[in-house]
Amino acid sequence: MAHTGQPVVDEMALRLVMPGDDGLLLRATLRYDPADPFAVEATFRAADESISWMLGRDLLHDGLLAEAGLGDVRVWPQSRHDGDPELVLIELRSPDGQATLAIDAADLEAFLRRTFDVVPRGCESAYLDLDLVIGRLLG
Question: Can you tell me whether residue 7 is helix, strand or coil?
C-alpha cells in the first residue's frame, strides 16, 4: 500500500563539531516522505552552501539510545550526568572527508515521533512506494 500522506518537515539548528572550538552553527531541514518510509532526508546549510544526506529513520531512532550505524553514517547520544541524552552526534563519512554534527536530542526525538505518527515503526514496508524506489534505482 503506497502512502499518500503529507511529508513531515522540520527545521532545526545543529553544530558542526570542531576540535578545540565551539563549532560552526548550521541549519538543517529534516524531511520524511511516507513514500520512502525507511529514510529521512537531511539537508545541512551554512552560509550559501547546502548538502543533503539520506539517513535511515531507524538509525536516527536507535542513535537516540545507543551508538548505532557502521560505515558512512554513525549516530550516538551524548548524555548529561543524569543519563538523559542532551545531544545526538551524527558522524557522516565520504571519500571527501568526514563531519560530526551535534543536534539537540529533544528536537530529533520530536521529529521522529511525528514520523512514527505518519508511518508506524515496523510498518514501513506496507507504505513503500515501489514505483519511487524503481525510479531512483534506474535514474
Answer: coil
Instruction: Count CA atoms closer than 13 A to 23's CA, side-chain side.
Output: 15
CA 49 vs. chain centroid, Å, equals: 19
Task: For the chain, list the domains and their CATH numbers.
Answer: 8-123 (2.30.31.20)
- Phi/psi for 34 (5° steps) reads -60, -20
The pLDDT tens digits for 56-75 are 999 999 999 999 999 899 99
* Amino acid residing at 133: V
Q: Give the per-residue pLDDT at 27.
A: 94
What grid cell was written down for 128? 513503500
Q: Which helix (H) or strand (E) holds 36?
A: none
Q: Cβ distance 89 to 75 under 8 Å?
A: yes
Residues paired with residue 113 on neighbouring β-strands, in sequence order: none
- For the chain, how many residues are written? 139
Measured at the CA of 4, the angle between CA 9 and CA 13, to 5 degrees, comes to 5
Output the pTM of the full model: 0.84
